[in-house]
C-alpha cells in the first residue's frame, strides 16, 4: 500500500437531477484521491476549506471514503468553492463556478501549511494538476514545484494532470508556461489531448507525447477520450467498449485514479491503462464526478 498525497481544490458540487439539484462535492485532484483511497491506498488530501457550515460535513464524508483529512486546513474567513454541472443528452457537461475567493487559493499561506508540507515530502507519490497551479498565487506555485523536487529527491514520485480551464488563466501562454514547469518536475504525466489542443502548440497525440517527454516527463500517458490513451511507447490502448455516457464529469480523474492505483502496485503502464479505462467507463455511466457506489470490478494485469 503506497502513501499518496493529492494537492488541489475541493469544491461543493451542484448536479442537476430531474427538476432539482443535488449537493455533493468534487474537484479534479479530489476525485482522483477518492478513487485511489477506494482502491486501497493510503491517501491524504492537501487543501483548505472555508469557515462555512459545509466544511465539517465534507471532512466527515471524505473520512468515510477512507481519505486522510489531516492535511485539510481550515481558512478563518474564506468560503469553500462551489460549482454546478449541467449535462446534455449525450452526457457532455458544462460548468458554472463560484471560486474566486475559494479557501483553497490560500492553502499554502495558512498556519498549518509548513507542517503539512513536511508530511507530504515523505509520500511515495504526490499528485497535482494544472488546475491546482491555476488557483494558486505565483509564490505558492513555486512552493509546490519545489516540494515536488524534494519528493523526487527522497525517492518518491510525482504525477501531474494537465487539466486546462481557460477561464482560470490570463491567456493560453501563461497556462503553457505553468504546465511546462510542472512537467519538468513530474515522473508521470497525464495530459488530455483536447486540453493540449485548446492550449495551443499541439495538434496530435504524438506531438503531445513528444513535447511532454522532451520537457522531462518520460512516463506520459495522453488521454484520448473514447479512443483510449497513448502510452509512453506510443502504443494506443483502447477501452473495451465505447459507451453511451450518462455523465462525463470526472472521467479523466477516474482514469488517473485507476492508472495510478495500479502503477503504485507495480503494474506496467499497459495494465494500468486498462484499469484506468475500466474505472473511467464505470464512472461515466453514473451521475456526478464521484459516484456514490464503489467500483468493484478488478482488471487483471
Describe this structure in words.
The protein is α/β, with parallel strands linked by helices. The protein has one domain: Ribokinase (UDP-N-acetylmuramoyl-L-alanine:D-glutamate ligase, 3-Layer(aba) Sandwich), CATH 3.40.1190. 36% of the residues lie in helices and 21% in strands. The chain has ten helices and 15 strands. The chain has helices at 28-38, 55-64, 113-120, 130-135, 138-153, 172-183, 193-199, 205-214, 251-263, 269-284, and strands spanning 3-7, 11-17, 20-26, 42-49, 67-68, 72-74, 82-87, 93-98, 125-129, 157-161, 188-189, 219-220, 222-223, 229-230, 236-237. α2 (55-64) links the parallel β4 and β5 (67-68). α1 crosses α9 and α9 packs antiparallel against α10 (269-284). It is globular, with a radius of gyration of 18 Å. The two termini are 17 Å apart. The model has no long low-confidence stretch (mean pLDDT 91).
Fill in the keyword field for this structure.
301 residues, eight-stranded parallel β-sheet, UDP-N-acetylmuramoyl-L-alanine:D-glutamate ligase, 10 helices, 21% strand, alpha/beta, four-stranded mixed β-sheet
CATH fold node name: UDP-N-acetylmuramoyl-L-alanine:D-glutamate ligase
Give the overall shape: globular
Percent helix range:
25-40%
Give the tally of β-strands: 15
Secondary-structure element order, N to C: EEEHEHEEEEHEHHEHEHHEEEEHH
Largest sheet: 8 strands, parallel
Terminal CA distance reads 17 Å
- Number of separate helices: 10
Strand content: 15-25%
Describe the oligomeric state of these chains in a short phrase.
Answer: single chain
Question: What is the CATH first-level class name?
Answer: Alpha Beta
Q: Number of folding domains?
A: 1
Q: How confident overall, as mean pLDDT?
A: 91
Name of the CATH superfamily: Ribokinase
What Rg, in angstroms, do the CA atoms define? 18 Å
Q: Uncertain regions: pLDDT < 50 for 5+ in a row?
A: none
Q: From the helix content, strand content and strand pairing, which structural class follows? A: alpha/beta
CATH architectural name:
3-Layer(aba) Sandwich
Amino acid at each position: 500500500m503506497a502513501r499518496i498525497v493529492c494537492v488541489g481544490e475541493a469544491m461543493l458540487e451542484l448536479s442537476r437531477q430531474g427538476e432539482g439539484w443535488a449537493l455533493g462535492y468534487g474537484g479534479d485532484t479530489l476525485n482522483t484521491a477518492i478513487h485511489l483511497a477506494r482502491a486501497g491506498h493510503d491517501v491524504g488530501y492537501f487543501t483548505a476549506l472555508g469557515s462555512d457550515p459545509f466544511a465539517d460535513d465534507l471532512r466527515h464524508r471524505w473520512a468515510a471514503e477512507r481519505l486522510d483529512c489531516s492535511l485539510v486546513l481550515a481558512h478563518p474567513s474564506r468560503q469553500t468553492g462551489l460549482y454546478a454541472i449541467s449535462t446534455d443528452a449525450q452526457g457532455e457537461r458544462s460548468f458554472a463556478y463560484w471560486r474566486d475567493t475559494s479557501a483553497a487559493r490560500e492553502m499554502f499561506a495558512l498556519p498549518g501549511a509548513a507542517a503539512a508540507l513536511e508530511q507530504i515530502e515523505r509520500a511515495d507519490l504526490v499528485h497535482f494538476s494544472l488546475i491546482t497551479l491555476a488557483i494558486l498565487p505565483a509564490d505558492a506555485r513555486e512552493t509546490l514545484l519545489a516540494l515536488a523536487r524534494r519528493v523526487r529527491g527522497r525517492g518518491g514520485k510525482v504525477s501531474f494532470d494537465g487539466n486546462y480551464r481557460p477561464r482560470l488563466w490570463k491567456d493560453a501562454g501563461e497556462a503553457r508556461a505553468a504546465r511546462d514547469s510542472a512537467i519538468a518536475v513530474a515522473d508521470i504525466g497525464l495530459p488530455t489531448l483536447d486540453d493540449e489542443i485548446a492550449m495551443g502548440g499541439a495538434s496530435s497525440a504524438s506531438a503531445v507525447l513528444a513535447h511532454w517527454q522532451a520537457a522531462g516527463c518520460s512516463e506520459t500517458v495522453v488521454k484520448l477520450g473514447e479512443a483510449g490513451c497513448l502510452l509512453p511507447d506510443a502504443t494506443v490502448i483502447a477501452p473495451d467498449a465505447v459507451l453511451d455516457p450518462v455523465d462525463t464529469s470526472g472521467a479523466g480523474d477516474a482514469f488517473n485514479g485507476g492508472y495510478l492505483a495500479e502503477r503504485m502496485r507495480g503494474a506496467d503502464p499497459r495494465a494500468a491503462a486498462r484499469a484506468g479505462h475500466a474505472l473511467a467507463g464505470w464512472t461515466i455511466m453514473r451521475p456526478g464526478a464521484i459516484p456514490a457506489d464503489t467500483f468493484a470490478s478488478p482488471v487483471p494485469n
